[in-house]
């Protein structure tokens, strides 16, 4: 008795690659905007990292100065669709760190701007932090990265061109 695979039906195999394109380009835009907003003021980016009060000042300044370049690199790599699974994994790791940092600041009663898309740091008197929306936003970005970790190949990508396929992989991949 032989078992044969049934042909795939439904829209998922057709739609999934295009959802992947949207996820890849959306995450690329996030990183390009975030990095671009910070790259002109690396000291400010360092001060934003230092505002979380989780590491020594000098280390916070180095991380803050490097972070915009990491974000820009991730954005370009995702925009091109090159090493998409790796870029999605690094994105997911960074987003988990960002979510943990925001949650930590919230739980310790700090009153800071996350600095996610530009200058951050201590909020002025009378201003309130918006930790829950920031965490929810980053969880949404994390979902995009997770999608790309599972289904990294998409149409219109360098990965697809190098593999010689249109970017539609099997569900088993």
Strand content: under 5%
Helix content range:
55-70%
SSE string, helices as H and strands as E = HHHHEEHH
Distance between the termini: 27 Å
Q: Can you give the mean pLDDT?
A: 90
What class do helices, strands and sheet pairing give? mainly alpha
Question: Largest beta sheet, briefly?
Answer: 2 strands, antiparallel
Number of helices: 6
Question: What is the tally of beta strands?
Answer: 2
Q: Compute the gyration radius: what is it?
A: 19 Å
User: Which sequence of strands runs across the widest sheet?
Assistant: 1-2
Shape: elongated
In terms of per-residue confidence, which ranges show pLDDT below 50 for 5 or more consecutive residues? 169-173
Describe, in plain words, how this protein is organized in 3D.
The structure is a single chain. This protein is an all-alpha fold. Helices cover 64% and strands 2% of the residues. The chain has a two-stranded antiparallel sheet with strand order 1-2. Strand 1 (112-113) and strand 2 (121-122) form a beta hairpin. Helix 4 (84-107) runs antiparallel to helix 5 (131-150).
The gist of it:
The chain has 173 residues and is an all-alpha fold. The protein has 6 helices and 2 strands.
Sequence-ordered SSE layout with sheet pairings:
Elements: H1 12-39, H2 42-50, H3 57-80, H4 84-107, E1 112-113, E2 121-122, H5 131-150, H6 158-163
Antiparallel strand pairs: 1-2
Key descriptive features of the protein:
173 residues; mainly alpha; two-stranded antiparallel ribbon; 2 strands; elongated; disordered C terminus
